[in-house]
Amino acid sequence: MEQQLRNIMTSDVYTVKDSQTIQEAAALMSEHNIGAIPVVNNTGEMVGIVTDRDITLRATAQGEASQTRVSEVMTAQEIVKGTPDMDIHQAAQLMADQQIRRLPVVENGQIVGMVSLGDIAVKDQFDQDAEQALSSISTPSEPQS
Known about the structure:
Keywords: CBS domain. This protein has 145 residues and is an alpha+beta fold. The protein is built from five helices and five strands. A three-stranded mixed sheet has the order 1-2-3. It has a two-stranded antiparallel ribbon with strand order 4-5. The chain starts with 15 loop residues before the first strand and ends in a 7-residue tail after the last helix. 29% of the residues are buried.
């Protein structure tokens, strides 16, 4: 039985603009207990994603100040995204292949939801997909040169 991401995604998604500071993004993450926030432009189109890890490794560890702009630490190229009608098995495989724990769900360029491995894991019929994805994600990737 095919299940779509729209059936399990979180549709109440918090976003930031690329001109906001990492301190603002981190405060949102802390307030809502989330680890990733989609970055949108003025029309609401997703232009990137910033994670707690991005802030830590690309700003804090480099001695950057809390006033650093989100645009300086976000992932903007090759953003891995899903669509609301994507099959959950496909999404889990995509997350495993790309070694990501959270998948933004985009429709017509607009962020409409987020799916985490946890969202997939709590569905009994998909717990093996989540387990496989987590196993792949936890495998160290090759360092970039």
